[in-house]
Amino acid sequence: MKKLLPWLISILLAITLIAIVAVILLNSIMGDDKTNNATNKAANNAASVETKKLTADDRVELTSEIADIKTNLSDPEYIAVLGLAFQLDEKSTKEDFEKIKEIQIKPIIIRTLSDMKPEEINGSAGKDLLCAKLLNLINPELPEGKLIKVEVTNFIVTKL
């Protein structure tokens, strides 16, 4: 029995270590799926919005701009300066958007950018992700109609 005791302890320790590693790996895999799922959901929602071909005059009538938004990113050493164009579905929606853009829309943009890292918004995929997030966050805030498209018109990320 005395010779078996060290073997039993070693086996129990090995099983415990394997169980701990399995739980840690499972949590890390499941955590990544949740963030990827949210990103995929935002991209799918943005892709499901139907756009139709508009003339240049129609686009100007239905598009609102917010220029020179300046805010810090989640990394406090970086600042983002950008301009955005918002295409809406109807003239009445644009009028409502113009009324609330400084008091409701701009804070949404600033909060969204404040949660992002410089690496997340660099490149076309990062800008597409930002536009999809903004589309999903701004649409519920509109009293009537819907936001169809968000485009980045100016974009600078620089270190302070």
For the biggest sheet, the summary is: 3 strands, antiparallel
Distance between the termini: 69 Å
Oligomeric nature of the chains: single chain
In terms of DSSP E residues, the strand content is: 15-25%
In N-to-C order, the SSE pattern is HHEEHHHE
Radius of gyration: 24 Å
SS-based structural class? alpha+beta
Mass-distribution shape: elongated
Describe the strand arrangement of the main beta sheet, using strand numbers: 1-2-3
Q: Count the strands?
A: 3
Number of helices: 5
- Estimate the mean pLDDT confidence: 85
Are there runs of 5+ residues with pLDDT below 50, and where?
Answer: none
List keywords for this structure.
5 helices, alpha+beta, three-stranded antiparallel β-sheet, 160 residues
Task: Summarize the helices and strands and which ones pair or pack.
Layout: H1 4-48, H2 56-62, E1 63-72, E2 78-88, H3 91-114, H4 118-121, H5 123-138, E3 147-159
Antiparallel strand pairs: 1-2, 2-3
Helix pairs in contact: 1-5, 3-5
Describe this structure in words.
Strands 1-2-3 form a three-stranded antiparallel β-sheet. It has 160 residues and is an alpha+beta fold. The protein contains five helices and three strands, in the order ααββαααβ. The chain has helices at residues 4-48, 56-62, 91-114, 118-121, 123-138, and strands at 63-72, 78-88, 147-159. Helix 1 (4-48) packs across helix 5 (123-138) and helix 3 (91-114) packs across helix 5 (123-138). The chain is 60% helix and 21% strand. It starts with a helix and ends with a strand. A hairpin with a 5-residue loop joins strand 1 and strand 2 (78-88).
